[in-house]
Amino acid sequence: MNIKEILNKTEEYFKSRNISSPRLDAEVLLADLLDTERVKLYVKFDYPLTDEEINKYRKMVKKRAQGTPVSYLTKKKEFMSLEFHVEPGVLIPRPETEELVEKILDIVRGETDLSRKIVDVGTGSGAILVSLLYYLPDAKGIGIDISDQAIRVARDNIKKFDLSQRSGLINGDLLEPLLPKKAGEIDLVVSNPPYISSKEYENLDKDVKSEPEEALHAGKDGLDIYKRLIPQAKELLRENGLLALEIGDKQGKLIENLFSELDGWREFQLLKDGAGKDRFVFMRCGGGNS
């Protein structure tokens, strides 16, 4: 069987299993197996696969059909044009989070003092922290995660991009490891925390449910982490420091209500993602709410 034939068969099989991107997934898995770029498959359509390659590919295809995300099978995910190591047990970086990083970069490049000291809360694979440090060569940052496994994966990615000298990782709960000793010292706190409500979690696709629940689910209304994180960030940030959050698309007003109830914040901004959904919140530390 050649590349063209096995891709066509796999695409049809994935369609029958209601895989959302059947052709793309078939190609990504095969390219990973053959250690080549996906686009190069098209110039190798007549390449005959060995029995060993076919058997390995079929095992990957079976796992994908059962709901295992492609990135868990390939152990990698592209984010901000950088290739990150990921694995089961660690959240897979999302396109929406790329938008969060891009918005932060736009702001920071206009206010260079914001890029000096960065903290990424719930760092996971380290995608946000690594991307910010990679594109902000003068920045230093700390990634915090409650998961030992996430810290290990983030450390792998930090080493991959040679950022160990400008970064640190802490195994801990939100910003607690930095308080009170770093109070008022940080320029930017960023987080893509768990924000899925209990009802929403019950209805998630099986692909998403194969990712760690603790990185997704945040109580009845999805606000559990924000209610703890926002007050902690106020203590950690310097005057005019920036808090940047990814949120659920139905949580904008709820987060704004939290903002209005807390002193010490100003310049609340609710921004939309590329799909036109409420997705990001930015707020400044200092002064009264406005």
UniProtKB/TrEMBL annotation:
<dbReference type="GO" id="GO:0032259">
    <property type="term" value="P:methylation"/>
</dbReference>
<feature type="domain" description="Release factor glutamine methyltransferase N-terminal">
    <location>
        <begin position="5"/>
        <end position="74"/>
    </location>
</feature>
<feature type="binding site">
    <location>
        <begin position="122"/>
        <end position="126"/>
    </location>
    <ligand>
        <name>S-adenosyl-L-methionine</name>
    </ligand>
</feature>
<dbReference type="Pfam" id="PF17827">
    <property type="entry name" value="PrmC_N"/>
</dbReference>
<dbReference type="InterPro" id="IPR019874">
    <property type="entry name" value="RF_methyltr_PrmC"/>
</dbReference>
<dbReference type="InterPro" id="IPR002052">
    <property type="entry name" value="DNA_methylase_N6_adenine_CS"/>
</dbReference>
<comment type="function">
    <text>Methylates the class 1 translation termination release factors RF1/PrfA and RF2/PrfB on the glutamine residue of the universally conserved GGQ motif.</text>
</comment>
<keyword id="KW-0949">S-adenosyl-L-methionine</keyword>
<dbReference type="InterPro" id="IPR040758">
    <property type="entry name" value="PrmC_N"/>
</dbReference>
<dbReference type="InterPro" id="IPR025714">
    <property type="entry name" value="Methyltranfer_dom"/>
</dbReference>
<protein>
    <recommendedName>
        <fullName>Release factor glutamine methyltransferase</fullName>
        <ecNumber>2.1.1.297</ecNumber>
    </recommendedName>
</protein>
<dbReference type="Pfam" id="PF13847">
    <property type="entry name" value="Methyltransf_31"/>
</dbReference>
<dbReference type="InterPro" id="IPR029063">
    <property type="entry name" value="SAM-dependent_MTases_sf"/>
</dbReference>
<dbReference type="InterPro" id="IPR004556">
    <property type="entry name" value="HemK-like"/>
</dbReference>
<keyword id="KW-0489">Methyltransferase</keyword>
<comment type="similarity">
    <text>Belongs to the protein N5-glutamine methyltransferase family. PrmC subfamily.</text>
</comment>
<feature type="binding site">
    <location>
        <begin position="192"/>
        <end position="195"/>
    </location>
    <ligand>
        <name>substrate</name>
    </ligand>
</feature>
<dbReference type="GO" id="GO:0003676">
    <property type="term" value="F:nucleic acid binding"/>
</dbReference>
<feature type="binding site">
    <location>
        <position position="192"/>
    </location>
    <ligand>
        <name>S-adenosyl-L-methionine</name>
    </ligand>
</feature>
<keyword id="KW-0808">Transferase</keyword>
<dbReference type="GO" id="GO:0102559">
    <property type="term" value="F:peptide chain release factor N(5)-glutamine methyltransferase activity"/>
</dbReference>
<feature type="domain" description="Methyltransferase">
    <location>
        <begin position="117"/>
        <end position="260"/>
    </location>
</feature>
<dbReference type="InterPro" id="IPR050320">
    <property type="entry name" value="N5-glutamine_MTase"/>
</dbReference>
<feature type="binding site">
    <location>
        <position position="145"/>
    </location>
    <ligand>
        <name>S-adenosyl-L-methionine</name>
    </ligand>
</feature>
